[in-house]
Amino acid sequence: NNSHYMLKLSINSHVKNKTKDHQAFNYKFECLELTATEFMSHVLQGHAFCNAILKEGTDGYCHRTNSNFNGGQVIGIDIDNTNSGKVKLDIDNGYWAYNEAISDPTLKSSASFIYTTPSHDDNHNRFRIIFALKNIEKPFFLCSIFTERFFLILH
After folding, report:
1. DSSP state for residue 55 in the 8-state scheme
2. Is 50:26 a contact under the CB 8 Å cutoff?
């Protein structure tokens, strides 16, 4: 359980769910320090988040770009149930239902929370698994390694 420590990450409360306004989406992040519960509240309100601590610009906002990356404490794993984003998976070929994920004992003990994304529907489940790290990781490639290894453990 990670509810007893604060998480640093970037939230964009200026957009909700999916948007085609890439300017608002990429340039209006704010670096915040939140509890896991506060973070989940932002996500469930449809606010975009960036799992990185971003450098603040002169306007007080953070631009979501690799060059502004300043560490990370949150890992999000997207489960889109597609093969490289193109072909929908089926039950016999790697499909992972949201209800299975929220019931998984490994995820129950290690994930901060799991939520459905705006593209989710009953016929094609899409969701995200969120993990909070106790410490801020620099460089962030360590988080990428964690993501790959954890995914292999689950499947």
Report:
1. P
2. no
Residue with structure tokens 């998480």?
7
46: left (phi over 0), alpha (psi -120 to 50) or beta: left
**Closest residue by Cα to residue 114 from 125, 135, 94, 98:** 98
Coil, strand or helix at 151: helix
Residue with tokens 């790959």: 148
- Residue 54 token pair: 């971003």
Query: How are the residues of the chain apportioned to helix, strand and coil, as percentages rounded to the nearest 5?
Result: 30, 35, 35
Q: Among all chains, which residue has been given the structure tokens 């309100």?
A: 45
Single-letter residue type at 140:
F
Which pLDDT tens digit goes with each residue over 75-127?
Answer: 888 888 887 767 777 777 888 899 999 999 999 998 999 999 988 999 899 99
- Element (H or E) spanning 48, and its range? strand 47-50
DSSP-derived 3-state class of residue 29: strand
66 exposed, middle or buried (CB, 10 Å; 0-12, 13-18, 19+)? exposed
Six token digits for residue 142: 């360590």
